[in-house]
Amino acid sequence: MSFAGKYQTETQEGYDEFCKLLGIPDDIIEKGRDYKLVTEVTQNGDEFAWTMHYPANHSVTNKFVLGKECDMETIGGKKFKATVTMEGGKLSVRFPNYHHTSEISGGKLIEISTATSAKGPVVLKRVSKKI
To answer: Do you know which Pfam families this protein is assigned to (predicted)?
Structure first.
């Protein structure tokens, strides 16, 4: 499954609730709500470079090899170790406060991040089109 390409957010669901659960300040949530996030993925076999371009010219790039522990970084700059796996055509990784999956479906990048609150799971679903 090839993920290579450049994608721009088309729709997202659960953004506010998910961001609030992660402790992102309201002013940052407001700025990002309608921002068309650009995700750029390069892939060479099991090796990936995954770059997220955020507002104010802020970008985060995580490089990883499937099945191998690597150093990663959150948008907030928190560094952590994780292992990205491929399960049924979906990339899967556990961030410090949530679980994230990515897949290509119908030519679109579908990303689902799931965190747990006292009320149960909180899900952010982002669908991005290739640009």
So the answer is: Lipocalin_7
Cβ-based neighbours of 52, under 8 Å, separated by 6 or more:
37, 38, 39, 59, 60, 61, 75
Domains and CATH numbers, the chain: 5-130 (2.40.128.20)
- Burial grade of 24 (CB within 10 A; 0-12, 13-18, 19 or more): middle
Q: State both tokens at 90.
A: 């979906």
DSSP 8-state class, residue 25: -
User: What is the per-residue pLDDT across 86-131, written as a single tens digit (0 to 9) for each?
Assistant: 999 999 999 888 999 999 999 999 999 999 988 899 999 999 999 9
Separation between Cα atoms, residue 85 and residue 68, nearest integer Å: 8
In the numeric block, the tokens 């292992």 are attached to: 83
SS3 track for 34-94: CCCCEEEEEEECCEEEEEEEECCCEEEEEEEECCCEEEEECCCCCEEEEECEEECCEEEEE
